[in-house]
Amino acid sequence: MNPAAVTHTADLVxxxxxxxxxxxxxxxxxxxxxxxxxxxxxxxxxxxxxxxLRYQQRIAALAWRYTQNSQDVSDITQEAFIRAxxxxxxxxxxxxxxxxxxxxTVNVAKNHLAxxxxxxxxxxxxxxxxxxxxxxxxxxxxxxxxxGSELARVVQRAFADLPEDLREALRLREFEGCSYExxxxxxxxxxxxxxxxxxRARDAIDRRVQAWRAGETVALDERD
Length: 224
What we know:
Elements (H helix, E strand, L loop, with lengths): L2 H12 L6 H7 L5 H9 L3 H23 L2 H18 L9 H19 L12 H4 L12 H18 L2 H11 L5 H8 L3 H23 L11
Helix pairs in contact: 1-4, 1-5, 2-4, 3-4, 4-5, 4-6, 5-6, 6-10, 8-11, 9-11, 10-11
């Protein structure tokens, strides 16, 4: 790719307040990723601006889950989009664009941390009440706020204790909003296995919550 084009991409990622952003954002929802990718491959640089605007928040959120550091998030997000731009001419559409971009971002994040001798943070839940509102109900009353906080910690811990394959499948479904087919592609496993993992993950968390409500403890044993 042209070095000037790469610089332009870096500048766009660094500044969401770019003057062209409002116009680009208004057009973005009306155009599919596949059409935008084809336009980029045909040499239209602005089409990639639209892809950046469409996905920069999701990519930044993904980077945050690996690093929990704002400067790292900025660096990883910028590098992920630059790598995507450089590689887009070889993108064949075998997977969805976001699935492809997701893989690039994960690799960039892992390499970024490995270069610093750090381990990724991958077990956090920013706000369980937004992800599992039906599991976060507490009885109204004076102790409701305290009970809600305790319940959030129970859910967070239950999620963190899941085996990695179950945790990742559930995270992709609940946090990233990925389809079962996209998750199967990302995890390189059949759709039926993805559905099973998500069911088992939800069931394990439900059992942990039910045990907490009953004042009991339950061990998670959900490994294949």
